[in-house]
Batch of 2 targets.
Target 1
Amino acid sequence: MAADRIMAFLLDLSLVHLLSSGWITLLRDALLKSVSPDEFDNPFLLWARSSSHPAFSVLIWFAYFSGFLIFFSETPGMAIFDLKVRRISKRSARIGWRSGVVRTMGLVLEVLTLGFGFLPALISSSGRALHDCLSDTMVVRASLQDLPLLDEVSRI
């Protein structure tokens, strides 16, 4: 399942890149049309003329992952690979907004630490990464009907 998780994450990153570059292009074009080119010190014009927009990309990245996890408990990449995120302590179909946001923030931490937070998922028997532990969640097959509770995770 680790390979499926990696492939789903890479697919989601590709989708986020397409979304963010598309939105940035639309926003940039709208700003360039609405602002006079004579306004050299206008911050919107300076932003629209720059080639890099990392803050906007991170915002879209965060909204993508947390939004899909909060409302659907899976991202499009996870859906393609038959994966779903479940809370460990509850037998709930959705993980909720708190777990979705904490999980996404943990994912950001893992990316910033060059992926070291993903190592526990590769070596632990439960297959949980740092962001799973922080948000009290785990990734399961979407077709799995019986969800494990916290005391059962150590046996998986």
Target 2
Amino acid sequence: METNSPNFQADGAETRNDSGTDAGRSAMDSNTFAQADSPRSDQADRAGFADEASMRKDTQGGSTLRAAAEATQGYLQDAKNKASAAAETGKAYAQSAVNAAGKKINDVKDQAADLKQRGMEYAAQEPMKAVAIAAAGSAVVTALLMTLMRARR
């Protein structure tokens, strides 16, 4: 588009005057300026407008980017909350398992203590029978051990 008005780059620097000759150049990179007599200067003008439009889209996209970042932060917080809840549930389950195991151990201890008490009472009431039962039990255990030892040789 040839016009009689000066052409401006996106930063407002004048690139040529009414006659189409070079005017004062700013201290920008030479790749940003189009030759004054070149048909590419019109393309550069269009590119400048396209850059301006993309800048407007970028500012609108910035709000989209912020919204996406906020949504991501929300998802991250939700994940943290769910992980924390899962950890608490796991801790509660583990504590429950420990408590149940402790109860079982206490039950077994109570049963062993009861059996010991009953055995002592029986031995006190019938000492001869208690010795005979102990000797018979020892003989059975000794016979089993000797059989196992012979099988290994």
